[in-house]
Amino acid sequence: NIATPLPRLENLLPPDLDNEHKQLLEGLLQPQACINPKYFYDDTGCELFTRICELEEYYPTRTEAAIFEHSADDISAALVNHAQWIDLGCGDCSKSRRWLQHVTPARLIGVDIAGDFLQTCLADIAHEHPELECIGVVSDFTQRLDLGKLLAEDQSSPPMFFYPGSSIGNFARADALSLLRCIRRHCGDSGQLLIGIDLVKPPPILEAAYDDAEGVTAEFNLNVLQVANRLLHADFEPANFAHQAVYDPVQRRIEMRLVAQQSHNVQLQDVERHFDAGEYILTEYSHKYTTDDFSALLAEAGFHCQHLWTDPQEWFGVFLAEP
Ligand code: AVJ
């Protein structure tokens, strides 16, 4: 293990991290205060998210894993071009890792915003699979995704994009479409996209998934205030806010909020932001799709050939999309 060199890591983050903080600050100063969900994932946030995925109420991870397992042969037979396997938002890469029992890519490219974490996880995989070239890409693909250069290193292998977990649900529909179009451009004539989508279902099930009895999701949501405190030298007092998850059946999305429990001021860098009692910070959208909805979105992005696998309750959908 000591002898194994660390996997190659490409940093595609913009050089001025100040910009990052600006985005956070700007969101908090808008009339409707908001925080982009990418700020959830500091070390504590990553750990809390892992715990969320194990919760009884949080069905997406488990349901997607069951579909992958149940339909592994079918899905892998359909993955014709998987020499370059790109895991978008790979986290600890555990989902790609499981696929390595069924597929044998030459390259695994893990894209995530959390760089240190990424390199350690990829080092483990590289150790287990010595023939596999593991590459980490530190990138914020909510801003831009440009893997053109990296993919061109292996021109003969079209990319296979793996985007599990319904993470695309964080994007507003228009932004989801832009991202899908961007992935489509990277695909050329014969790349593929395997993507997991959380489907519309009765609101009580959705709301429980984002407001569990143990309070792990509440802790995850409130932790973003600590992230803001660090990045902006702010003085958020988490105890002044309460976690809330509301399903909007018209927009078909969960909205996660942090609701101010009393009127107070928060210092953000050199500005003060006032919060009325009951005023909230919007921290996350998690959009839900019908299968028709998402299929239409894929088609609009230029993916005309599609396969779909679901669980018996149709709570979650796994789409394979091709040009
Ligand atoms: C990682 C975006 C898929 O929206 O379900 C889980 C994040 N937030 N519980 C989701 C999340 C609260 C999750 N995604």
Question: How would you portray this structure in words?
Answer:
There is one protein chain. 36% of the residues lie in helices and 25% in strands. It is α/β, with parallel strands linked by helices. The strands form three sheets. It has an eight-stranded mixed beta sheet, sandwiched between helices. The radius of gyration is 20 Å and the shape is globular. The N and C termini lie far apart (41 Å). The mean pLDDT is 94. It binds N,N,N-trimethyl-histidine. N,N,N-trimethyl-histidine (AVJ) binds next to strand 11.
Layout of SSEs?
Layout: E1 8-11, H1 18-29, H2 43-53, H3 59-70, H4 72-78, E2 84-88, H5 94-99, E3 107-112, H6 115-128, E4 133-138, H7 148-152, E5 159-163, H8 173-187, E6 192-198, H9 203-209, H10 216-232, E7 241-248, E8 253-260, E9 264-268, E10 271-275, E11 280-287, H11 291-300, E12 305-310, E13 316-322
Parallel strand pairs: 1-4, 2-3, 2-5, 3-4, 5-6
Antiparallel strand pairs: 6-13, 7-8, 8-11, 9-10, 12-13
Helix pairs in contact: 2-10
Give short descriptive properties of this protein:
single chain; alpha/beta; eight-stranded mixed beta sheet; three-stranded antiparallel beta sheet; globular; binds N,N,N-trimethyl-histidine; methyltransferase activity; EgtD
One letter per element, helices H and strands E, the order comes to EHHHHEHEHEHEHEHHEEEEEHEE
Strands ordered across the widest β-sheet: 1-4-3-2-5-6-13-12
- What quaternary form is this? single chain
Percent range of helical residues: 25-40%
3D shape: globular
In DSSP terms (H or I, runs of 4 or more residues), the helix count works out at 11
